[in-house]
Amino acid sequence: MPAAAVPPAPDPFSLRLLSPAQWGLLTVTFLMWAGFFLIIPLVTVHFVGGLGWAAGAVGVVLGVRQLAQQGLTVLGGAWADRVGPRQLILWGCLLRAVGFAGMAFSGTFAALLISSLVAGVGGALFDAPKSAALSALTRPEHRPQLFSLLSVAGNLGMVLGPLLGAAMMGLGFSVAALISAGTYVLCWLILRLTLPDVRPAQEGGGGLNGLRRAVADRRFVKFTVALIGYFLLSTQLNVAVTLKAVALGGPGATGPLYALNAGLAVLLQYPLLRWAEGRFRARTILTAAVTLAALSLGLMGFAGTFPLLLACAALYSLGTMLVFPTQQTLVSRLAPPELLGSYFGFSAISLGVGGALGNVLGGSLMDYGAALGRPALPWLLLMATGFVTVAALRWALKEVPSAGGQQPG
Q1: In order of start, what are the domains of the chain with their CATH numbers?
Q2: Which sign does the torsion angle of CA 295, 238, 390, 260 carry?
Q3: Where are the transmembrane segments (predicted)?
């Protein structure tokens, strides 16, 4: 009887094996995050601290961008499953550049709102398609390493962006906004030269059919809805936490705040996640991470100095750095291989709705707490929101399978 054929061992992962397209996607991820975090914290600082706008009004502007990007990402992901991601990503880079350049010349609420909306639409075109492109260009056994590198590249950009923004404050908000826009033009050029025309897994798939399948997936919808509360909390780094950091440490406090948050993620995210995955189920990791983020926000209400606020921000970072990769793992576990774009796009609803609510409520709660003379109240309400979210996630994840496919994750 002939011996059974032994399957070849998978090639070991090595940076030397990365293709120009993979390097291009990693590079533009770094540039996108750097350009984004160069300007977004300064929007709050410039229009609230510099021009005296109400924090709630700026929160509406930031919320519109968040809702436009994450809300329309549903369509961007489904479209990528049908036509391929390359053209969507390229057009998204250009629209994001136009939106951020428009912020440089926005002197009215309406102008800033329109610029923010255009920037959000640009992000919707490249967000889910970028993940779909990297998946299509990467062997399945190497995808975890590539997505880890993608996260590291983004967090490195998150470290550099606020530091550049703080350094450019002396040059003015308009200069910073134009430089941010220029990074997305550079992203367009890099991907134009390196990214091939990746075709969808199934011709004629995706589109509205892919979205219908995602909507009909009851356990996936429950998971997506439960995550809204977490993304309401995660957005506070750009609103409530930034405002308190500036109040305690001055306008230049945004640089150290964002550098700490992203720097800890760069150093600890991969080893901490590997340690947690070897000991706990995905549901436990996710709910513990959201609990830690909620507790740290509650403690920020009682931080009377900038160093104490940074200590709370460090705890916040430890929680948030575990949420994103765990969430992405669970989405990919639930999605059919031919509908990765549609599922990743649909999952962005939680970030869009939660982020928009977080931007609006964060600024409004800060104004409300100040008017009542109870500055700790907004932070306690955010913490309570986090605890409700943890309960909702535990309920939703009862039906999410583990890697083995049967037991809850």
Answers
A1: 19-399 (1.20.1250.20)
A2: negative
A3: 20-40, 47-68, 100-126, 146-165, 171-191, 220-243, 255-273, 285-302, 339-357, 377-397
